[in-house]
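Hey,
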Amino acid sequence: MTHTDPPFADCSMPDTLRHVAYTGGVGPIVVAVGQLLCDRRFCAAAHRVDKQYAATVVYCLYFHPLAKYPGPFWAKFSVWPSYYHSLKGDRHIWIWQCHQLYGPIFRYGPNALLFNSPKALWTIYDSRSNVQKAKFYEMHPWKAGAFNTWNCTNKLVHARKRRILNAAFSDKAIRAAEPYVIQHADRWCQLLLNDAGDVWSAPRDMAEWSNGLVFDILGLTPPPFPRRSRHRSIPSTQLT
């Protein structure tokens, strides 16, 4: 019995792989892979992808607006480092290590920076800052079209809503609430360290503990607004 010429007879497939295709138990799989590898259209497409990716890497490393910021090499043109550490469950440790290595600002993705500086709060969130919230925030409204000051990406709408809250979040109001916040934060830290050993304490659900801290602060801190009926419309205005 003679074999007909294989569909990849004229390509540069190694003789060993060609032999396995006809004598091994994985013939159909190897034949399919061989056909794909020898398909000129596939090779041309792969070549174009390689060139495009190489161009993207060069752009991210040298010409991107964030190219001047330090950070892990692979993270400058790929999100895989951040994703890898998320899968491992140690992304928070990786971020801390990067801050120790690169300083208060580092680039953890092609289009992303992480800040660890009080000054960044005003640089990013000031009304005159040259930044724009990502579309990611628009995924969170509980009702379509009902945006608040956190998830609103339209600067004009955000400014209208922010004016209502300015009195509560002015420097004077925040300083007045500072003793209450510090009191609850100190107590919160004491409770976290109650069973701490020499190195690590027992694992805790920090989401639940953080919710408890916020509840205590909001519940026991005097409200910044007087309790008058004319202020009762404030929550509803944040939903429209």
